[in-house]
Amino acid sequence: MRRKWIWLSTAAVAAGVGGGALSLRYRVRAPAAPVRPSGAAVIASAEVTLTGKIRPQHLTPVAAAAGGIIDAFLADVGQDVYTGQVLARIGASGLESAREAAASAVEHGQDQVSRAEAVVAGARLEASRADADLARARMAFDRVEKNWARQQTLYAAGATPRLTYEKAEHEYEGAQQDLSIMDKAARAAAEQVQSAVAQWNSAKKALADRVRELDEAQANLQAAEVRSPVDGFVVARNGEAGKPVQEGGDLFQIATDLYALEATVEPEPAVLKHIRPGQQALVLVLDLQSAGIPGDVKEIQGGLVVVEFGSTTPAIKPGMQAAVRLKLE
């Protein structure tokens, strides 16, 4: 029995040593894990984060309507502006004074026209009265003239007293004199109306000239004032106060939609060759603690990559720094 246990123990030890040797043999001979080759397979799963600036997708340029010296800028980059707001003045020295003088001349001209119009109205009223008086005098004269002719016939026939004849003659002469006076008065009133109308027309012509001068002064002043054509956000300004600007030269760039933005980044050439238009991206605004905004590669301009995205808050402004995260293809 004792020999049996000794034999069994010896066999177990031998089996354990053999198994360990076999395990060591296979462990040493096991093939090494394959090394992933460099190239597309590695780049396909790589990400790159590039920093750049945010800019608007839609811009409205504001040009100088007339050349001259920039008197003053009234708006700056980073400022919200509204349609019609004065952004700058160009060569406006003395133009405001000229406009005020022209406006004063127009006011004076309007007063002259009003006065002349009142004179015309008064002259026409007097002419109407004179015409009425003339009509009455003519009717009275016609009646007296008929009586005078009848008395002449009767007197010649000895059928009327001399006093009656002389009275009719006297009434005829008086009526004739009254008719002459009324006729002269009516003619004078008519001439007065013509004169008043002529003065009125002259005053209106002078007023039209003054109004034209005012329009020119206002046009010159408006040309000197650079106004915003849209509501928006100033992202760029060119020129300096006291320096000249040419007609048509851009002075401002105004963003009209702060929710349609894009970020521009400039990757290294080795990275650029793995970026394609339409590729998805994630835009993080570094100046704000907010979640990333999904975007897409809009285009590649030379070495510049443009990523467009839709803003979710008006707090994101053009000019802010952005980090653009891309998965390389």
Give keywords.
329 residues, alpha+beta, Elongation Factor Tu (Ef-tu), domain 3, OB fold (Dihydrolipoamide Acetyltransferase, E2P), Helix Hairpins, 24% strand
Tell me what you see in this structure:
The protein has helices at residues 2-29, 40-44, 95-156, 162-224, 269-272; strands at residues 47-56, 59-63, 68-73, 80-81, 86-90, 225-227, 232-237, 244-245, 250-255, 260-265, 280-285, 293-301, 304-310, 321-327. It is of the alpha+beta class. The chain folds into three domains: 43-58 and 257-329, Elongation Factor Tu (Ef-tu), domain 3 (Beta Barrel), CATH 2.40.30.170; 59-85 and 228-256, RNA polymerase II/Efflux pump adaptor protein, barrel-sandwich hybrid domain (OB fold (Dihydrolipoamide Acetyltransferase, E2P), Beta Barrel); 95-224, Helix Hairpins (Orthogonal Bundle). Helix 3 (95-156) runs antiparallel to helix 4. The two termini are 76 Å apart. Residues 1-45 have low confidence and may be disordered.
Would you spell out the secondary-structure blueprint of this structure?
Elements: H1 2-29, H2 40-44, E1 47-56, E2 59-63, E3 68-73, E4 80-81, E5 86-90, H3 95-156, H4 162-224, E6 225-227, E7 232-237, E8 244-245, E9 250-255, E10 260-265, H5 269-272, E11 280-285, E12 293-301, E13 304-310, E14 321-327
Antiparallel strand pairs: 1-10, 1-14, 2-9, 3-5, 3-8, 4-7, 5-6, 7-9, 10-13, 11-12, 11-14, 12-13
Helix pairs in contact: 3-4
